[in-house]
Design a protein that fits this description.
253 residues; mainly beta; five-stranded antiparallel β-sheet; four-stranded antiparallel β-sheet; 1 helix; 4% helix; globular
Amino acid sequence: MRVGARLLAVQDDAFAAVWIEPAGRLEPWLLRGDGVRLGKPLKPDFEAALAHDGVAWLLGSGSLPQRCAVARLDLARGRAEVQARPGWYAAIAEVLGAAPNIEGAARHGGALWLTHRGAGTSASALLRMAPGALEHAVPAIESCTRCDLGSLDGVPLHFTDAAAGPSALWFLAAAECTPDAIADGPVTGSVLGRIESDGARWVPVLEADGQRSRAKFEGLVVEEGGASAWLLSDPDDAAAAARLCRVRLRGFG
């Protein structure tokens, strides 16, 4: 997410985040304990983030009980509070009819939007909530829309992030061959798109040489004006570094 001139990147396998300065300097922010990397059974799985009125919110995916936590970050004081929210995620699970896998959050058009990432033939979903839903123990869910995003090389696309942009709700989606929300699998590519009145519209993410990227992008910030965006990859490999990429947005008119 963007906060002023800086970007705040969130780790899914640690209680930690990192500020990214315009010049590229990194400044860690420990949310709890020593910020050490945790394995799949213990990680908080923070996958969605948004900032509003001096507060940043980090949302666990909700895909396992230990991933049903929300972190509230006081940006002015540099303080973080991690809160277990089992009731909050239970309300989402009831609407979805399955365990949630929240991968994106954004405020747009007077509402809070969450993207639920499906897997395989299980559809992704777009949830609309009251704007203050994060302040309450149980959220007011206004609607839930199942989303068929298509596929890349026969692998279904599913949401990996959401962001507010100029007059539109934008999203990332990846084509990952995995049967569920826990297991990692081969990735055939990622797309960047926006939600429009007649559905979702997207274009594949391309590398600098014009070839389709095979990276799984899970972080999105759309710049003012909607001409460019920042993408952050997740290689699903502790030995591999994430990539922060700036891309030009084309093909949206």
